Task: inverse folding
């Protein structure tokens, strides 16, 4: 009797061991939030010195997909802001401006709207060299948010808008000589 029980115990262990790993198909698909989290880990890996363009672009796409699928969710505006930040760092100014406009139009009460407006002016100035639009948005920013932490930056940007490094050096030297 003991022998039979022992045989069945070994048979069960053997069958279970030979069953092998579960197939991929039996795994539950990742939610969009989980996909974003995994992609953020890849993009913002502290062991990595620079952003991998392909991984960063994939994260931007996931952020936008989330905002498209959940436009009323409180994370939608935040994810669009993160997408715009990455897009700006990837030097994709047209895409960045579209993301900024989407935030400004769809989420006017978003707490980072002042930053969005300032950064929109900055992208026009720095990446697009479109000084007319940069001026327009810096001025709009100052009109709407004169007490913002970026107000001084906007004033300085307006003062030196479109000037070459050589022109700036001359102005600084001139200002220093006048002291």
Result:
């Amino acid at each position: 009797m003991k022998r039979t029980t022992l045989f069945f115990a070994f048979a069960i262990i053997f069958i279970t061991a030979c069953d092998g790993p579960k197939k991929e198909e039996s795994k539950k698909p990742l939610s969009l939030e989980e996909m974003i989290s995994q992609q953020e880990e890849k993009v913002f890996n502290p062991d990595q010195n620079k952003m991998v363009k392909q991984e960063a672009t994939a994260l931007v796409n996931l952020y936008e997909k989330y905002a498209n699928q959940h436009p009323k969710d409180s994370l939608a505006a935040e994810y669009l802001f993160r997408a715009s930040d990455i897009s700006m760092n990837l030097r994709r100014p047209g895409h960045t401006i579209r993301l900024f406009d989407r935030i400004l139009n769809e989420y006017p009460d978003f707490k980072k709207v002042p930053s969005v407006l300032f950064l929109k002016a900055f992208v026009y100035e720095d990446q697009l060299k479109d000084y007319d639009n940069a001026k327009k948005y810096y001025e709009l920013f100052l009109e709407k948010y004169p007490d913002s932490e970026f107000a001084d930056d906007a004033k300085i940007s307006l003062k030196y808008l479109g000037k070459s490094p050589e022109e700036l050096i001359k102005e600084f030297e001139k200002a220093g000589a006048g002291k």
User: Anything to note?
Assistant: The CA atoms of residues 51 and 115 lie 22 Å apart.
